[in-house]
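WARN retry 2 of 3 for item q-0093 after timeout on previous attempt; input resubmitted unchanged.
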Amino acid sequence: MPVNTPDIAVRGYDVVAYFDDQAVPGDPAIASEYEGTQYYFSNPANKERFDANPAQFAPAYGGNCATAMSEGNVFGIDPTNFKVRDGRLFLFYRGTAGDTKPQWDAEEADRLRQADEHWARLNS
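OK item q-0093 returned
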């Protein structure tokens, strides 16, 4: 299950809104590009915040499910299932196979370390 369409991050959700504890669909008319991917925003103010520092708002693990990444897997997400911790946006799968966020929350320190290690290996 892909996280992004070929060029659209987080299924078109506004990544800045997550940092205000909201999962909000973005508007394709309010968009920015970062590292070859389009990001949509729900309002011009969020686009401006993103444009000032895109790396701050880009999701961890390329927008893939954080729990799956901790297990060395790349898997899609439900864009309404998220967590912001220590300035990082983590996204999680929720669907017919269950919800992976509770697994992450129960073992967050270990899963964070493992996911970071797996992501580094995938990108080396």
